[in-house]
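Report of the visiting student (M.T.), summer placement. My assignment was to run the structure pipeline on a short list of targets and document each run. The first record concerns Disease resistance R13L4/SHOC-2-like LRR domain-containing protein.
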Amino acid sequence: MALRLMMKPPLSSSKGLLFFYLVVLFSCSQSINAQTNQTNATTDPSEVRALISIFQQWDLQAPDTWNISGEPCSGTALTTSFSEFEDPSNNPAIRCDCSFNASTVCHITSLRVFGLDKRGVIPDEILELPYLDFLKIDKNFFSGSLPAFIGNLSRLGLLSIAQNNFSGPIPKEIGNLKKLYLLSLGNNDLSGTLPPELGNLVELGELYINSCGLSGEIPSSFANLKEMRIVWASDNAFTGKIPDFVGNWTKLTQLRFEGNSFEGPIPSSFSNLTSLNSLVLRNVLLTGNFPSYITELQSLQKLDLSFNNLTGQIPSTLFNMNSLIYLFLGNNSLSGSIPSQKSETLQTM
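After the run finished, the structure tokens were exported:
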């Protein structure tokens, strides 16, 4: 008769298996709880009503990708992926944060209506979305004034209303949006000057105000905007001198003034802008000598100083800057010649 031996597992092995099973059980429990919390989380009812009203006024239809079974904060509205939120198929789009009240309440934090040819004004109901930190409604036909109450959306970090038909002055109340890191107002029918209160936006890193009907001088309060990285301000009737304090925006990578009505020279303080990769001061009525320090801006890839009244000698070292790709200096009163040898990176002159 064969004798079958039953081997008992070592005690340490049994404890290891028990620990493994406990870890798996705990992980499954946490996963189930997380899914349950996410399922139970619902959008703040006042925000749902506001969103419905806004969509009705703007003749918008919520897509199935996020408005699942009538619950706005669902589907892609819960994504943490910016690329998924900005996907063209997800338009109009919202994004939500469902971490409130022990993950039972969702608040709408982002609203995007991009390039849908919609009309209307910015309605009061947008104030019923107090957790908005992202509002992007570019490339539509929205009109009317930019309302002062938008300055009450204190969580806004991005406000982009470019390429619409908004009119009237920029409300000074936008200066209350202390968390704003991007402001885009370009290609509208605005009027008036830049409010000095915008100098309160000390976290602002990107400003796009090209072709929007503004005039006057750049306020001295803008000296506070030391986080600025990108400024596009072409085709406005700005006057006065380009302020020296722009040279203190040392994080600046792109500066574009084109078709303005400035006067005077390029500020010597621009020698501090060592992070610049694009400097466009085209057709802005500048005078004075060509700034020799330009050759010290070793990150510069594009330089356009054309259609001004600049004089003086073009430094030969300009043509041998390793970073420079595009160079436009035409229609000035400059002197000098192009050297026989130039940098291999310089493609356009």
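The first strand starts at residue 42 and ends at 43. Residues 1-15, 20-38 have pLDDT under 50 and may be disordered. I thank the supervising group for their guidance throughout the placement.
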